[in-house]
Amino acid sequence: MVTALVLLGLMLLFVIPVVLVYLLQHKIIFAPQYYNRRRLFAEYPDLYRPLELQVEKGLFLEGVVYEPQEKAVRTMLYFGGREQDSVTLIAKFSLHYPTIRIIAFNYRGYGTSGGVPSEEAFHGDALKIFDYVSEHYERPVLLGYSLGSNVAVHVAVRRRPKELILVAAFESVQALSKVKLRPVPRLFIKHRFETINEIDKVTVPFSMYVTSDDGFVPIIQPRKLKAKANETMLVDYKEFEGYNHAQLLFSDEVCENIEKVLAK
Questions:
Q1: Domain coordinates in residue numbering, the chain
Q2: CATH fourth-level superfamily of 2-262
Q3: pTM for the whole thing?
Q4: Under 8 Å between Cβ of 117 and 108
Q5: Spatial CB neighbours of 196, under 8 Å, sequence gap ≥ 6
Q6: How many percent of the chain have pLDDT more than 70?
Q7: Distances 198 to 145, 150, 151, 154 between C-alpha atoms, Å
């Protein structure tokens, strides 16, 4: 009887978290945001121009382009994290990289973009965004942060950006589940974002910037990505200390390294 109760307890300890992750994973993985900070675009129309991209019939994504006052020396396309309104981040990016043309679109369900978030939608839309930017501006450098690092890798494998920059990259959703909850079988994960399965297929120069104090992504995960990457393509890899997951992207050290990439 005691053994049966122990086994039942162990099963519940495993099964309940798996069921919860399966049922709630959409909310766990995606956290769409909308920040009402778009008046800046109307105040400075020469610098910030709203964009709109149709990705399906009747479905549009909200975007924005920052154009420097002088001729842009490079174009950077940004793919943001799970809790970011990437369009409103454009002002902050322009302060750090004032000579760079910077373009960002919000994922489905984020900001004023239509639709519902999903891995398939993020990946498919990202390719359309890249093609739009390449056609109307120039072939961009890709910058992917956190969840956006997976999206950026997906694009880089299927297109030819000038370079790829990954900040706070993680191995996969399944690997993160082992850290935050309980090990969840791959079968039960709908949105997998498995960067580990594509990182070795990147054939353009790329850089990775991570932090050992991330607090969300264990440092072992970017180290696994580094180990699997094509070493001739991974031109820069740096681990920093003293920054958590949210602080890393706009930290002085990461911004300095991104500036070097953009200056090539």
A1: 2-262
A2: Alpha/Beta hydrolase fold, catalytic domain (3.40.50.1820)
A3: 0.92
A4: yes
A5: 171, 172, 175, 224, 225, 228
A6: 89
A7: 16, 9, 11, 7
